[in-house]
Write a structure and sequence with these properties.
Blueprint lengths: L2 H15 L8 H5 L4 H5 L8 H19 L20 H24 L2 H4 L11 H27 L2
Length: 156
């Protein structure tokens, strides 16, 4: 198996369909979640919706680079999103999240293994592999937060 296929599958595990590492994934946690739970704040924590949008922000921004575009995402904007005010808006966001995540995985699969070791945009950002691994690890980090927040939301 090509390294890129293996890495793409690791990414799919955390976002779309896996249970090996965390026994869950983003899609499992979010797909049938009521929007009011997704946007409900608990103390000073980020909401489930903000955390999901945050991960999507990075996936979408890196997809742009994978397709030959520029790197336009900035950490300082990675939590700035318009409010979600309805189930329809939440569902539309999720559709886009799943679509962009699958595109991310497909773009990884289409890379050569050699591309993984090339610099991502600029040398200071490390390699493509390092950035893909970072997305996977970052996603697991926030998935854990979502699971914890969801448990707190649903017990009230």
């Amino acid at each position: 198996m090509k390294n890129t296929v293996e890495i793409a599958n690791r990414f799919r595990e955390v976002i779309l369909n896996g249970t090996w590492i965390a026994n869950t994934n983003f899609k499992d946690q979010l797909e049938n979640l009521d929007w009011e739970i997704a946007v409900k704040p608990i103390q000073n924590l980020n909401t489930i919706a903000i955390l999901a949008q945050h991960i999507h922000y990075y996936i979408n921004g890196i997809n742009q680079v994978f397709k030959g575009g520029t790197l336009d995402i900035k950490d300082k904007f990675s939590f700035d999103f318009p409010p979600i005010d309805s189930q329809e808006q939440w569902n539309n966001f999720l559709i886009k999240f799943w679509k962009d995540s699958e595109e991310f995985a497909l773009l990884i699969e289409q890379m050569s293994d050699e591309k993984l070791n090339e610099n991502f945009v600029e040398e200071k950002y490390g390699t493509y592999k390092r950035n893909i691994d970072a997305i996977i690890e970052h996603s697991y980090y926030h998935l854990g937060q979502i699971v914890s927040i969801k448990k707190q939301q649903l017990k009230f």
